[in-house]
Amino acid sequence: MPIKSIETLLENRIQVASKTDNKVKAELYLVTDAIDKYLERAKLLEAEILSYAKERDWGHKVAYLLDPDKHIIAIAELIKK
C-alpha cells in the first residue's frame, strides 16, 4: 500500500519507515471469518490497536494493529450482505 494511503487510512497514528529504523516496516493483511476472536487475542498479546474493526470501502471489515516490532497487522473479514 502506498505510504500516504496507509497514513491517511490510519489517521496519521503511525510513522512509516523510509529506511530501516524504529518506524513501521510492513503490513500483514489476514482474512478470517472470526475477526472479533482474533482482535481479542491480539489485545491479550499487547498489540496496539490502531483502528478498531469497521467496514471499509473495498468490501472488508478491517481492524489495524501494531505489533511490538512495528509491523502493521490488518485483521479482515468479508462484509456479509
Brief write-up:
The protein is an alpha+beta fold and 81 residues long. The chain is 21% helix and 33% strand.
N to C succession of SSEs: HEHEEE
Our Rg estimate from Cα atoms comes to 13 Å
Q: Provide the spatial order of strands within the biggest beta sheet.
A: 1-4-3-2
C-alpha end-to-end distance = 26 Å
Secondary-structure map:
Elements: H1 3-9, E1 27-31, H2 35-44, E2 48-55, E3 60-66, E4 72-78
Parallel strand pairs: 1-4
Antiparallel strand pairs: 2-3, 3-4
Structure in words:
By secondary structure, this protein is of the alpha+beta class. It has helices spanning 3-9, 35-44, and strands at 27-31, 48-55, 60-66, 72-78. It has a four-stranded mixed beta sheet, with helices on one face. The longest helix is centred in the middle third of the chain and has 10 residues, at 35-44.
Task: Describe the structure using short key phrases.
81 residues, 21% helix
